[in-house]
Amino acid sequence: MGLNLAGVDLIRSSSGSKVLEVNSSPGIEGIEKATKKNIASSIIKFIEENVRLVNISSKKY
Fold first, then answer.
1. Could you give the CA distance from residue 37 to residue 50 in angstroms, rounded to a whole number?
2. What is the rounded distance in angstroms from the CA atom of residue 55 to the CA atom of residue 39?
3. Closest-CA residue to 5 (of 24, 27, 20)
4. From CA 6, how far away is CA 27, in angstroms rounded?
5. Which residue, among 32, 54, 30, 50, has the nearest Cα to 41 in the 3D structure?
6. If residue 17 lies in a helix (H) or strand (E), which one and from where to where?
7. How far apart are CA 47 and CA 5, in angstroms?
8. Which residue of 39, 42, 50, 57 could cross-link 28, Cys pair, CB 3.0 to 4.6 Å?
9. Mean pLDDT, residues 31-48 taken together
10. Rounded to the nearest 5 degrees, what angle is found at the Cα of 28, between the Cα atoms of 32 and 18?
């Protein structure tokens, strides 16, 4: 899918985990509450470490 960040909804079955859906803009509140981890902070850190700055000209149109 080419996503750097996604939420994946899974369900357990007798034959293993099954993917229900993949969200390109996942909500993180539930996982933060369940794990007591600051997921938002980890996402920001990932972005800061992987962003590529682009030099954009300041031409006026």
1. 21
2. 30
3. 24
4. 10
5. 32
6. strand 16-23
7. 10
8. 39
9. 93
10. 100
Q: Domain boundaries in the chain?
A: 7-50
Say how far apart CA 28 and CA 49 lie, in whole Å.
Answer: 20
Per-residue CA distances from 24 to 14, 18, 41, 43 (Å)? 28, 18, 18, 13
Enumerate the H helices of the chain as residue ranges: 29-35, 39-50
What is the SS3 assignment for 37?
coil
Under 8 Å between Cβ of 32 and 39: yes
| Type of residue numbered 8 | V
Over residues 16-30, the pLDDT tens digits come to 999 999 999 888 999
